């Protein structure tokens, strides 16, 4: 057996999922499977909504209140009122772009700092605001040589200067799993007066996240990956920089006293406090919100650090075997090295990533190919059998 036996404090949770036997799903970075608890919450919500009799005005709000509190706890934010319900990362980043013209000291010629090959929703958001304000994108290139993480982090910090208006950085790169030192980035951004926005989609829920140490202005997460919830539902933290800002839409639910249905025609100019103005319309999500609530409760019970420990030990024996085939893996370097829940495996020059991915798929091993790397994303439902299947197929395909 090539994979190390798992003996971490948190044992395998495969029995909490309904993944079929013989399928080796190492692809949580694309989409998480639902746990049994999340499935059950969905079934119960559907049954409950089949008969809307007795629905109360407060029912349009209470589910989101619980979810916002759970997410606030997960990212160690002290204020659930700073959490908004969003449908997607693109929506969450659009809120940042919409309000960037309000940033004190914003001026033409400033830069928005990104890392190379960032996810499209974190790039497209800035086109229009750059044109309108005369801003420029400053893209921090990934180093060619290994280890990449320490030098990439230094390049990122060097790129943040007096002409920086906004920094957009993820906890881990969505393709390669390389970590960025968010505490150092946050400190540098505050020193020069830049806003700091984080796309936490590929980390929050599986990697410890401490907002009180990072102190970013925004944290935006899709719900269907490491939050392990449903598609088309996400959450975002918006800090004091966004207080009294401009929302993307004018939902009636986001106004003060909107739960008093008998007074809805007394049009209310004031918004609910803090991040509530940025909630997507129909934020109740009667079917999906209970599923996300169940997922967040489960993650808080499992704890992201224990997920890191489990996936680290699970995969530890695979990396030397794959490196012996000519593959490359970013080393562990703390907050500037690789994560354990999402790892980029760079293939040797003679291997075609799509051909390799197809061979894996033919053997019921699910991963994602991203440029020259395979993105391997295990979770608590994975076992040594899954890791051994991955190594076996890669040995057959790459080693020939």
TrEMBL record:
Q: What is any Pfam family matched here?
A: Aminotran_5
Q: Which UniProt keywords apply?
A: Aminotransferase, Pyridoxal phosphate, Transferase
Is Transcription a UniProt keyword of this protein? no
Q: What molecular function terms (GO) are annotated for this protein? A: transaminase activity
Superkingdom: Bacteria
Domain Aminotransferase class V residues, every copy = 63-372
InterPro entries hit by this protein? Aminotrans_V_dom, PyrdxlP-dep_Trfase, PyrdxlP-dep_Trfase_major, PyrdxlP-dep_Trfase_small
- The name this protein goes by in its record: Aminotransferase class V-fold PLP-dependent enzyme
**Organism of origin:** Spirosoma taeanense
């Amino acid at each position: 057996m090539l994979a190390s036996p798992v003996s971490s404090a948190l044992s395998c949770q495969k029995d909490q999922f309904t993944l079929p036997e013989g399928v080796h799903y190492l692809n949580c970075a694309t989409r998480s499977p639902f746990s049994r608890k999340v499935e059950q919450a969905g079934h119960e919500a559907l049954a409950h909504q089949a008969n809307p009799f007795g629905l109360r005005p407060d029912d349009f709000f209470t589910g989101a209140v619980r979810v916002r509190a759970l997410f606030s706890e997960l990212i160690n934010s002290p204020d659930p009122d700073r959490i908004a319900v969003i449908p997607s990362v693109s929506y969450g980043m659009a809120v940042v772009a919409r309000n960037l013209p309000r940033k004190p000291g914003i001026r033409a010629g400033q830069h928005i700092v990104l890392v190379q090959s960032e996810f499209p929703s974190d790039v497209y958001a800035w086109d229009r605001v750059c044109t309108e304000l005369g801003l420029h994108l400053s893209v921090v290139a990934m180093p060619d040589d290994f280890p990449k993480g320490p030098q990439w982090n230094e390049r990122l910090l060097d790129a943040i200067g007096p002409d920086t208006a906004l920094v957009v950085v993820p906890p881990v790169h969505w393709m390669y799993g390389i970590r960025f030192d968010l505490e150092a980035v946050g400190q540098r951004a505050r020193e020069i007066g830049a806003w700091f926005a984080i796309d936490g989609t590929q980390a929050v829920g599986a990697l410890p996240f401490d907002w009180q140490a990072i102190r970013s202005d925004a944290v935006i997460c899709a719900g269907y990956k490491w939050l392990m919830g449903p598609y088309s539902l996400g959450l975002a933290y918006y800090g004091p920089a966004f207080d009294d800002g401009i929302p993307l839409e004018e939902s009636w639910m986001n106004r003060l006293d909107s739960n008093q249905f008998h007074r809805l025609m007394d049009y209310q100019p004031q918004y609910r406090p803090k991040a509530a103005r940025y909630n997507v319309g129909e934020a109740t999500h009667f079917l999906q919100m209970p599923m996300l609530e169940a997922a967040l409760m489960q993650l808080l019970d499992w704890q992201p650090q224990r997920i890191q420990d489990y996936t680290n030990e699970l995969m530890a024996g695979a990396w030397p075997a794959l490196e012996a085939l000519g593959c490359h893996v970013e080393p562990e370097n703390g907050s500037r090295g690789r994560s354990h829940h999402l790892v980029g495996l760079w293939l040797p020059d003679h291997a075609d990533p799509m051909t390799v991915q197809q061979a894996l798929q033919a053997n019921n091993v699910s991963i994602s190919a991203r440029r020259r790397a395979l993105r391997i994303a295990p979770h608590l439902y994975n076992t040594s059998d899954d890791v051994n299947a991955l190594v076996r197929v890669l040995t057959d395909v790459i080693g020939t």
